[in-house]
Write a structure and sequence with these properties.
Strands 1-2-4-5-6-7-8-9 form an 8-stranded parallel beta barrel, surrounded by 7 helices. Strands 12-13-18-17-16-14-15 form a 7-stranded mixed β-sheet. By secondary structure, it is α/β, with parallel strands linked by helices. Helix 4 runs parallel beside helix 6, helix 8 packs parallel to helix 9 and helix 9 runs parallel beside helix 11. The longest helix is centred in the first third of the chain and has 24 residues. It folds into 3 domains: 292 residues, Glycosidases (TIM Barrel); 181 residues, Class I glutamine amidotransferase (GATase) domain (Rossmann fold), CATH 3.40.50.880; 77 residues, Immunoglobulin-like (Sandwich), CATH 2.60.40. It is built from 16 helices and 27 strands. The structure holds zinc ion. The site of zinc ion has 8 residues, from helix 5.
Length: 584
């Protein structure tokens, strides 16, 4: 019987764990499930030089079945390093050389063997290649490494993994888990555009770890946004989100990975791995939060953030949307340009330019009445004549150090921040475009948020600091000038290091990211609606009051921004999440 209403809790036993720890399964199962109830385990047949023989695997399968835990298979596509014998085949993380006939044969054999044991198999995220051996160089020919690897992994997925597995066991569902490094997939051959349809399902790496130090430089919001991107890439076929304790350092970091994964509404929450749940000081605290998250998800609808267009195989201005997501912008990344709908919005970054037609698409979108939000990274690489059609904003190539902000018109405010932030300088044609927010010092300012009307809609240009994490240093209410228009569902929040998650049933959730200095934050929630009530949700009804939150009405006559808002002041602590329903 499922432990939670909204998701399954799962873990994986890597091949070395099964080989070495089989005698301790019972003891370790008790330890883990004391804190984290398990609905399903993935049992791995192969990883590097570890291989689980049939008899051993059968006893592991029997053990979990007897406990009422679902069982699936897993494979990690690493193979022992041969570099000592053959320097030409040096490969990071012992990933396969797909030009090597022996390795190809081994892959096929492992797929067949695993399919003979299981009706579902997941591939851990080593299913890529970085080999540059002579055979790979020859097979690559005139193609770029990226194109060669995309083509190779597409072929390998079909011919060495899914094809052979289904031949042995036609019922077998194959799942490809994609890593946390979306912006780099194509460089190593990860090909979600094709693999999502070759495999039965995808799975998402949400291991954002300690952002300031870890290897992939991922803002925590990526644990949410990559899940959403994958859900949109393969609707209904994103199997779950997967995180681990590596490079987390603190309980809050580990738990935040789980929270942000959970807020995206995963089918499964994967704690990597069995061994890391047994010997992990984070297991208890994370297990305690699962029930609370489950209650919240029962009340929340489907995620409904502002669409971010990140086409397949795109990179550039990497994770700028995630840095904004750490400061209260609610996003819904997608590899497909959104269909125009009345009141629709789309956010484009340098990555969006992977689509050669994106400028025509945003021009049409705005002409029909949509709001287009474009970063300075987008403008920098966009074809000048096509961009000039829709906005007068242009980059000078110079940079301005700012410690002062000026909000224009009768929403006017003038703030000295005391912190220097470097912005690209934008010039524009005054009164063709209108500046909503300026940044500067002494007697000079540059626009950092400006508006061009176009057709029935408009183009908003947002300047991203040279270090995008500096967004957290802006005085929080300064960002309101952006959030008034760049939001989802007419909801935004004022507050530092606050993330906002918006759902399609008039519910939303706020979370204070645990960042130095550790202190509570007074958040202002803004609802751009004529009339509204706000009610707390997701608490335990028998223990917590979930009464109405007092709102006050704020009006502005500023002609480019909404004229009426209902606002609420809410105190929140680092690591706390609070959810609300708007009653209209
Ligand atoms: Zn090779």
């Amino acid at each position: 019987m499922a432990h939670f209403k909204n998701f399954k809790v799962v873990t994986i036993l890597p091949a070395p764990t099964i080989v070495r720890e089989l005698d301790h399964l019972d003891e370790d199962y008790e330890k883990i499930t004391h804190y984290v109830p398990l609905d399903k385990v993935y049992l791995e047949t192969f990883r590097g030089d570890s291989y689980v023989e049939r008899e051993k695997m059968k006893s592991a399968i029997d053990f979990f079945k007897a406990k009422g835990v679902e069982v699936s298979g897993a494979i990690t596509t690493c193979i022992p390093d041969q570099s000592a014998a053959d320097r030409d085949k040096q490969r990071l993380f012992e990933t396969f050389c797909w030009s090597d006939e022996k390795m190809r044969a081994r892959m096929k054999e492992i797929s067949e063997y695993t399919a003979s044991l299981f009706d579902e198999i997941i591939l851990d995220d080593y299913f890529f290649t970085n080999c540059t051996c002579e055979a790979c160089r020859r097979n690559k020919g005139k193609r770029s490494w990226t194109q060669f690897r995309l083509d190779t992994l597409e072929e390998v997925s079909r011919d060495l993994v899914v094809g052979p597995a289904k031949k042995i066991n036609p019922k077998c569902r194959l799942i490809v888990k994609f890593p946390n490094w979306r912006e780099s997939y194509h460089g190593a051959g990860y090909n979600p555009e094709k693999e999502k349809d070759i495999f039965d399902a995808v799975y998402t790496g949400t291991e954002t770890r300690a952002t300031a130090y870890q290897d992939q430089h991922l803002p925590r919001y990526a644990s949410y946004s990559l899940m959403r991107w994958m859900d949109n890439a393969a609707p209904g076929r994103n199997g779950g989100g997967w995180f681990d304790p590596f490079q987390c350092f603190t309980v809050d970091t580990y738990n935040e990975q789980m929270y942000f994964t959970a807020f995206s509404r995963p089918k499964e929450i994967m704690f990597f791995s069995w061994h890391n749940l047994v010997d992990n000081r984070f297991t208890g605290p994370s297990g305690m939060q699962l029930g609370k998250i489950d209650r919240l998800l029962t009340d929340l609808g489907s995620p409904a953030g502002l669409p971010v267009y990140l086409p397949f195989n795109a990179d550039g201005e990497n994770h700028v949307e995630d840095h904004l997501g750490m400061q209260g912008f609610a996003f819904e990344p997608t590899p497909y340009f959104p269909e125009f709908q009345e009141g629709g919005s789309v956010f484009v970054t340098e990555s969006s330019l992977r689509d050669p037609d994106v400028l025509e698409k945003i021009t049409d979108f705005a002409a029909q009445g949509g709001k287009v939000f474009a970063t300075t990274g987008f403008i920098a690489k966009a074809e000048p004549a096509k961009w000039e059609e829709i906005s007068s904003a242009r980059l000078t190539g110079r940079h301005i150090l700012a410690d002062r902000y000026w909000l224009t018109d009768d929403y006017a405010d003038y703030v000295e921040s005391g912190t220097n932030i470097l912005f690209p300088e934008i010039q524009h044609s005054n009164n063709r475009s209108w500046v909503l927010l300026n940044a500067g010092r002494s007697d000079f300012m540059t626009p950092i948020y400006l508006y061009d009307s176009y057709g029935k809609g408009g183009i908003y240009t947002i300047s991203v600091p040279e270090n995008p994490a500096d967004l957290s240093l802006l005085p929080p209410h300064i960002l309101d000038a952006v959030k008034k228009s760049m939001n989802a569902g007419g909801i935004y929040v004022t507050g530092r290091n606050i993330s906002l998650f918006v759902y399609d049933n008039d519910t939303f959730l706020i979370y204070q990211n645990v960042k130095e200095p550790i202190r509570p934050e007074h958040v202002t929630v803004h609802i751009q609606n004529e009339t509204a009530k706000l009610v707390r949700i997701g608490g335990d009804p028998s223990r917590e009051s979930s009464g109405e939150i007092p709102l006050r009405r704020v009006e502005s006559s500023y002609n480019l921004q909404p004229y009426c808002e209902w606002v609420a002041d809410i105190a929140i602590e680092p690591g706390e999440f609070l959810a609300y329903r708007i009653v209209r």
